[in-house]
Fold each of these.
Amino acid sequence: MQLPEKVTLREVAMRDGLQSLKHFVPTEQKREIIAAVVEAGIRRVEATSFVSPKAVPQLKDAAELMGGVPRGRATYAALVPNARGARDAVAAGADEIVVVISASEAHNRENVRRSIDASLAELDAVFEIALSAGVDVIGSVAVSFGCPFQGDVPEADVLRIVAQYVRRGARSVILADTTGMAGPTRVARRVTAFRERFPDTHLVLHFHNNRGTAMANLLAALQAGADCFDTALGGIGGCPYVPQAAGNLATADVVFMLEEMGVETGVDLQKLIPAARRLEEILGFTLPGQVMKSGPRDPRLAAHICGIGKALAQRQQADS
Ligand code: ZN
């Protein structure tokens, strides 16, 4: 199997995971979770979004949250919908800003009530604000693998938006499977096409598990040469109107699988799993993550952290 030595994970739970929740999670608890994932070894965090508090009340504390994240060990990104959001994010101390345009016209209009061209026109101001302040811009392409309104999304439509980001100075681009429509073959083809056309641009993959294919997609992307993925603690990020709907790839599940395959993540499951379980406690409902329930491979650790196989571990201890 062709695998990278090392993979970087971008933790997106506090932005992509929380944005659709109804009740507001206090800023202090968001900070607690961010501090815990950084302590576990996460080095890139997408912390919040500088959007209208009316549109996304869950993230109304963006500036306050950004002001209190533990600096020094991780970089913090914030999503922005326009120039005004970019100004606010830069002022609040974001290290990177993320801009999003959908690869399908229908999804872009549904998402931001604008045509793709109108969204592209707004990019100049956003890049100018960020780059002149020394803040990197990450360009995200939503519905890169399929659109809930349109169905298939042609590769050319995806790469056209990537080219617009790169031309303006984005060093990283996210291809997002916003509603979990990708399969491994499609992912491998798109990753290969991206790397051929934009060899100097850092590629990030963002998979949702709506149809159960997210982990298979990650493996396909890995084998096609990708080495950076968005993941969310506990796998949150599902639709709030569909209880237990699958969300983002769960960070601990990805760490477990990669480390099990000998791919380094720099993340310590022993610290990450308690953080996911704490998030579950804060949110008050069962999260889709699996490794946070089953524990790491070491049975004694699994017993200690998750209470799984406790009786077995005790018996083994008595035997030894
Ligand atoms: Zn997402």
Amino acid sequence: MSHKQIICLGLESSCDDTAAAIVRRNADGSADILSNIIHTQTDVHAPFGGVVPELAARAHIEYMDQMVAEALKTAQLTYNDLNLVAATSGPGLLGGVIVGLMSGKAISLAHDLPFIAVNHLEGHALTAGLSHGIEPPYLLLLISGGHTQILQVNKVGQYELLGTTIDDAIGEAFDKTAKLLGLGYPGGPFVEQYAKQGNPKRFNLPRPMKGRKNCDFSFSGLKTAVLLAAKNIQPITQQDKYDLCAAFQAAATDVLADRLKRAMLLFRENLNVTIDSPQKLIIAGGVAANQAIAKKLTALGQQHNFELIVPPANLCTDNGAMIAWAGITQYLNGNTNNLTAPPRARWPLYE
Ligand code: KG4
Ligand code: ZN
């Protein structure tokens, strides 16, 4: 491991957050987040109940410069203090990715700094190193509006996909349930609040993929089941909404736990370690904020000797700090200049 201090500017614009952050990797390997600035486009997309790519790209253009200026100001640094620039170059909505990627390349060229094109998923995958100093191997559950994946992180740059959704992402299912019931956007936090006052057993919703041998997910059937259950009880009362949210959340949580249980067994098999060897499970992505999910997965972890680690909420959702940290990590691994890297709508981590 190198003993260099590195100060990196990280940019993120792959979905609906325009973010810039400055992270310092100290000579002893520890990290400090000197600034972590974000503009979330909730108000732009709320009327549509989901992210509108064209509107997202326009908002990124409008806000990226401000985010960078604020990140430098908060860190009390100038461009001259930076050693590295990193930006998300995929996967994500192409219009937005282009904004952050080209901004990063321009700053790198203007100030003669090395540039790293970061895979957004790698940003999430390595966040536990930034927040908790944790190094691979570990199991990663990534649950957000765009992704539902279980990854085995063997070491930096070596990721194995254990399971993924075959249709909708889990966050999307939360958002669609909220939209159906007219609760607001983004829907996850509303569904969680409503579920607290509901009876999860009133509606008998399916648990798609439960018991399957692989670790994959499916959420579109669950979404349709909620729709049908709601249709059958029109006009819908406030208590109906509470009960539907509780039933949906219970089903989604159940599925997560079942798929993750399989992944824990597979992870041990792959690493050739028994249940006596303590392991780590990291949860990242916006849905990781859900307390009912965290509670269930903590209990599951205890049964299987996996310690559950959830980075702080502002590092779980999309942010610039995780991109800066992934950039620093890549740089120390010998990746020095990606000025020709293209924006990529699709970019699996495990190819
Ligand atoms: O990671 P994120 O901020 O953005 C990306 O999708 O990349 O995740 C946003 C997703 C949304 O679908 C939102 O509804 C969901 O995370 N979410 C939640 C909660 N808070 C946010 N889902 C369930 N429970 C929550 N408390
Ligand atoms: Zn993300």
